[in-house]
Amino acid sequence: MTIREAAAMLGAEILQTEFEDAPLSGAYTSDLLSDVMANAKEGGALITIQAHKNTVAVATLVNIGVIILCNNRPLQDDDMLAAAKDEGIAVIRTKDNQYTVSGKLWAALNGGPNG
User: Fold this and answer.
1) Would you state the pLDDT for residue 113?
2) H or E element that contains 68
3) Per-block mean pLDDT, blocks of 10 residues, the chain (115 long)
């Protein structure tokens, strides 16, 4: 499943559109950015409510391809999308909470009922 396919499956809005539509290798759910740095895997998605520039910096460090903002979280600053564009990281936003997004994405990536 690619980033754009994941966005469509989640019914998510793509906020930052200039990225490589790469396949996702997994996902990590956390709002603690130090936890993301320590445990997220390269090539995955970051599922979070952290809608600011520092989230992009952490995604870049771990080589995450997409940040999924949950709960229709508003951007905390305009710099987030600019930084994501510079790094080629997709930013998408969904109305669903982190639990729901995690479950849907897990099922889609692991051949579950919705995948």
Assistant:
1) 60
2) strand 66-69
3) 98 97 97 96 97 97 97 92 97 98 96 63
Q: Where are the alpha helices (DSSP H) in the chain?
A: 3-10, 33-39, 53-62, 79-87, 98-109
Torsion of CA 1, 91, 29, 60, to 10 degrees: 100
- Token pair of 14 as six digits: 């793509």
pLDDT for residue 44: 95
Dihedrals phi, psi of 38, to nearest 5 degrees: -80, -25
Angstrom distance (rounded) from CA 27 to CA 46: 6
**How many Å apart are CA 54 and CA 27, to the nearest integer?**
18
Tokens standing for residue 86 = 């510079």
pLDDT of residue 89: 98
Residue 77's pLDDT is what? 82
- Quick one: three-class SS letters along 11-26? CCEEEECCCCCCECCC
Rounding to the nearest 10 degrees, give the CA dihedral for residues 96, 100, 105, 106: 170
